[in-house]
Amino acid sequence: MRQRLSSEPDRYRGRRRVPTPPRSRYAAVVTSAFLGAGVVALGSTMLPDAKAVDQEALADLRSAAATGIDQEARAAEVADQVSRDSDRSAMETTLADTADVWALPMTDYTFTNPYGMEGAELHAGIDLAAAEGTPFAAVHSGTVKSAGWGGGYGLMVVIDHGNGIETVYGHARQLLVKAGDKVQAGQPIGLVGATGHAYGSQLCLEVQVDGESRDPVRYLIEHGVDIKLQVASIYS
To answer: Considering just the CA atoms, what is the radius of gyration of the chain in Å?
Structure first.
């Protein structure tokens, strides 16, 4: 080996030589790089490609979700409606059971004959003309005292309302109640007809208090029902 002359330029002067890393450290760096690349590659294979998603299945899922929401809304609506119907039915039942409620005997009729004297005889009730077969109802709650043939009244119903008050319904074509039945205000008790001494299809309605007849128009007005105007207050 030749000896370097002092006059020979020093090619390495001012330079710093980087030490060579140990082989074990070099191996760790290379291994980490390979492992990182593998993880990235594995992750890319596990993530679904947007183009590979079944659009039809996705649409079905969205439709099912929307249907579920619609069904829940419909169920809530039905439940609310049932609740309102139940409340209304309970209110109507309570009103019908109230002792002070009076009602019209029917609707769509014509007032034809008032209470009062007819020559030498008293017409003890009022006549309401209506189509044959029209249902008529009890004007007040009570117990059916009798139901059947009543001579000039034809088929008739008598209802005992207590406290000496009774109502009479005559000239029916058919009766819907029998003696002993409990009825409520507004409950159908027969069908309009022309049986007995009737001048056409009509309902004869009488009110009796302690065995004496009263003018049904005046009596019912006192209880919130106007026969002539066909108006009745359920709060009467």
So the answer is: 49
